[in-house]
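Dear colleagues,

For the upcoming journal club I promised to circulate an example of a predicted protein-ligand complex. I picked one with pyridoxal-5'-phosphate because it came up in last month's discussion. The inputs are reproduced below in full, followed by the predicted structure.
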Amino acid sequence: MGKQLAIHGGSPIRTEAFPAWPVYGKPEEEALLRVLHSGKWGRIDGEEVATFERRFAEYHEARFGVAVVNGTVSLRLALFAAGIQAGDEVIVPPFTFMATASAVIEANATPVFVDIEPDTYNIDVAMIRKAITRRTRAIIPVHMAGLPADMDAIMALAREHDLVVIEDAAHAHGAAYRGRRVGSLGHMASFSFQSSKNLCSGEGGIIITSDERLYEACRSAHNCGRIPGGAWYEHHNLGGNYRLSEFQGALLNCQFDRLEEQAQRREENGRYLAERLAGVPGITPQARGRGETRHGYHLFIFRYDPQVYGVSRAVFLKALAAEGIPAAPGYAIPLHRQVLFTERHFGPYTGCLDTHPQLDYRQVSLPVCERASDTAGAWLYQSLLLGSRRDMDDIAAAFEKLYTHRSELASVAAD
Ligand SMILES: Cc1ncc(COP(=O)(O)O)c(C=O)c1O
């Protein structure tokens, strides 16, 4: 057995930690104390959340923003505002976080899974076209890892079939497509500010839109069905309390001040790392050049070819971690194979079962997504991309080392 690989006792490529996440400092500390001492802790009392909504929407070239408690609720409210209801079908990708599809169940509608592209892992527009039926009402493209989906083609289909498009931009703060920021491309967009996200406040989310009617609907739904000018105990619409607190608003305003510089750094490092890794056999970075003017790089996705290394993805990632480079297998269970869907654990939301009594997600076959989930997909986290050029060289060196010593991988236990 060779002794080169760190997992076999050799020296790791890297022992230093990568940049920590979240990044914070005096501004966050002062802002949180300011809110504390103001006694204005809820959005209805202060200006932090309202200010952030304006800034975030403007940055993404949209007219309005409604901040909410998380990026799951924002999808749910966007579907609600779009009027999605029982009997409707909503097209979603299967390679994403469950909220993209569970929000559709909670809207009492039917998620229709459409496969992804093999090289970008974004939803495949040719497959969307095939999945459209007379019941289709909406599409939720996810900008996977921060790479904008093929929005020109998606919006053309939407116009043709009169569909609502809700961008799931949970990974894509500050990303751009053909010169325009994501969030301004569909009818509405949903972002998440959960702790791992490129802009975060522990928990949080936002819906942005330039359509005043959709904005009013989201605003009312997130605030117990109230309407502008109405009395506090006057409720016009179905809604709930999904308001963000001023503490989160204050944090978001500070984090927002850091976003543009961080986004530029991620883009620069991501582009460089992709170039470096393109030269490593059996490793293929997420394809670029599909209209993105800026990748959001919430994740740095790469495809792994087990044929080249003779071991599973799990073994490869274990050996990579031993070299000091943390990585993850990504969405290892496609959504259509989650128990939630195979066993139809939809609770009281029976709209999709009433519409499609035979609905059986176990029959759904989406080979590209399944390959990505089962064997090929993997990613590095965004905070690694906040490092220096030298950090990127270390990452690339670790991949190169594993390739050079690939014959030693066979003796690594899979556990
Ligand atoms: C693609 C995608 N959509 C939606 C969400 C939901 O966001 P949240 O965790 O804020 O509810 C996430 C978060 O993980 C996500 O990655």
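Two points we might discuss: The longest strand covers residues 299-304. Residues 26-256 form a domain with the Aspartate Aminotransferase; domain 2 fold (CATH 3.40.640.10).

See you all on Thursday,
B. R.
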